[in-house]
Model the fold of this input.
Amino acid sequence: MGLKTFRPLTHSLRWTALPDFAEITKHKPERKLTVAKRKTGGRNAYGRVTARGIGGGHKQRYRIIDFKRDKIGVPAVVEAIEYDPNRSARIALLKYEDGEKRYIIAPLDLKVGAKLMSGPDAELLTGNALPLRNILPGMPIHNIELKRGKGGQLCRSAAAAATIMALEGDYAMVKLPSGEIRKIHADCYATIGQVGNVDHMNVSLGKAGRSRWLGIRPITRGMARNPVDHPMGGGQGKSKGGGGWHHPESPWGKLAKGGKTRRKKKYSNAFILQRRKK
Done:
């Protein structure tokens, strides 16, 4: 699980750094665990562009991931580690004793042949899913539920990990990767370990074409547009929005940097003990 670099035979190869996929053991997904994924081009049901910069890209199928880990007490064996085009993390194919197969997010250092289980009686080993009350404080965890039985919602991307700070009554104090400390019900499930593919943050695409393969189209800067097209457009030279300085904002006037979007009276404020670090 590392990066590979290239001899600078072309301008783009000089800066390219791509995953070496050394951990991948299976190169085609389980067909029954995938569904078709339709391209939208950023358009809604009326055909209007609501998300700019989306289009093209390689055809993909969505892998159905088991975020709930609800086969309690049934042992499973890791059959393969696979690539998933829909997320930054790798996925692991589990085969349970009853013959059922499921995908989970692959934690760091999970190997083919490892035995996993979920439930309150599972061992404290990487890849096992347990309620927060059964996990020791300080252990790295991921795929954390916010509501009991809903499935993991937090810490699912590459290299993500949270830790339990303390247990108080029915709640666990969990420190998230952002630095936020939050109360989560102790009956919510989490998976032990850090999410794998830790070098994802160091990947350098190297050329514009690779972004197009990912379905990412180029977007023009607001300052480079005309005043009719953007609040920051126009002016003589590189002026910030038609001659006077304007705070960076979207084409529809929504603040782009520092503007708070969270509702002040949101119910979940009561569960946040410490905000994320700025």
Notes: The longest strand covers residues 76-82. Helices lie at 11-15, 208-213. The chain has a mean pLDDT of 94.
